[in-house]
Amino acid sequence: MRWTLKPKPNTEKLKQLQEALQVDEIVATLLLQRGIETYEAAKTFFRPSLKDLHNPFLMKDMDKAVNRIEQALANNENILVYGDYDVDGTSSVALMSSYLKTKTNQVATYIPDRYDEGYGVSFKGIDFAHDNEFSLIIALDCGVKAIDKVAYAKEKGIDFIICDHHRPGDELPNASAVLDPKRDDCEYPYKELCGCGVGFKLIQALASKEGKSAEDLTEYLDLVATAIGADIVPITGENRTLAYYGLQVINKNPRPGIQAIIDQVKKEELTITDVVFIVAPRINAAGRMQHGDYAVALLTETNFNQAKQYAEEIEAFNTDRREADQQITEEALQQIKAHNEEERFTTVVYHEEWHKGVIGIVASRLTETYYRPTLVFTKSGDKLAASARSVSGFDVYNALEACSAHIEQFGGHKYAAGLTLKEENYEAFKQAFEDEVSKTIDKTLLVPEIKVDMLISLPQVNDKLWRIIRQFAPFGPSNMTPIFMSENLKDTGYGKCVGEDDKHLRITVTQTGQEKLVGIGFGLGDKYDLITNKKRFKAVYSIDENHWQGHVSLQLKLRDIK
Length: 562
Description:
- The chain is an alpha/beta fold.
- Helix content is 40%, strand content 19%.
- The protein is built from 18 helices and 19 strands.
- Helix 7 links the parallel strand 4 (136-140) and strand 5 (159-163).
């Protein structure tokens, strides 16, 4: 594990911000590291407001999208809301369809089958629309590269509106509107929305024509916050505001489907991390193990008892999913060893029987063991399909682009992508990918990194600092939980290994001898020797709260010890 201490901010800026906000150096440093340099920016950060959301009509083609939907509503056209089978896709479909159902009964939803149709817009989906007399398809979280599919739909008299956030290719589909902040010709001020976020901007634009504002749409924000968490987009700007208010909805008044999930896990208050690890995997499990339609049904259900039944079925899918991903991860690790591939720059594994629904999770698990760009392949029809995951700082999308001669199709972004190829091209692709990564990756990226915000002394860890840090939430990419480093620490003699197989470390740590703080290090049991016999050590940690028998105290959540 390598520790990287972030550079100290400019002294002048630091002083100015401290004075403007009347805060200490630690808080001002943390804010400057997150790009917050003024009193105004700090106010927006600590007190996000839905009034600060950008005008949706700043997005290229938004006026066209709104006009086409208004036309469809006026003419009583059948509208098909189409989305991908992951959390972002299914929550986008739930958002758009439930909003449109307040205007018309002529709305249906369509989620492609992960196994039969694969990712994104499919010919089968367009045929379904044609057979059932839909004249408008609104595609969410997919479609920006579906040039041939949109052309096919046009031949059949079906218009498309695309709401996507993936990188477009050189050419855009010939749709009625293509909403994607990552379009080169789109001047929308915030580029990092997820698919559900783009969908929300569209309903914000539609509602504004009736004189309504974002505040009138808060009931949809539990879906947006769930998609933001699940899609690992930066928690900055609009995403932060949407996630902030979405979490309030999740915790105070969520839709029945989300409430039914929360009831199963018996959690009091959910953070964005809980959304990522509790709510999202369950929504995802439906699309992975059965069909994404289940997830949409759960998220759009208005009757709580019915939602509870869906949630129970989905919980069973989630248990199956967990068992499948554990077994496949085990098999993949054995394959790497059997082929003597422990020392490569990449992990590329394949088995035709692996469950397509969990290969993305397995790819993430494998990067925990061998920290390097990873692809997990399985058989999908007459092709092979893979999920790609990367390591921090390396763009796997670009690496795949360099190997595109061997690939049928691929899509995604810097850290996660999907692709298909012909079976006979697998070995050639595997070698090309290894060559490309070995040539282009900075070798230090192959060692997991902990980014440390700043060096502080232990006495600075107090209730006041904790109260302010809590207000930095919701945490996520570009606004991670602050990580601190302290040196010259020692355990007061109570340090021990805890948990099964003594996997975790629990210490009571001091620096000057005056203060004592409990530190918990999950998975750090093997560092026990570093703290015995009052040896001095340094640690990186985040600050956390420990609730025990009604007593609340601060504790250090240890990330690593040296």
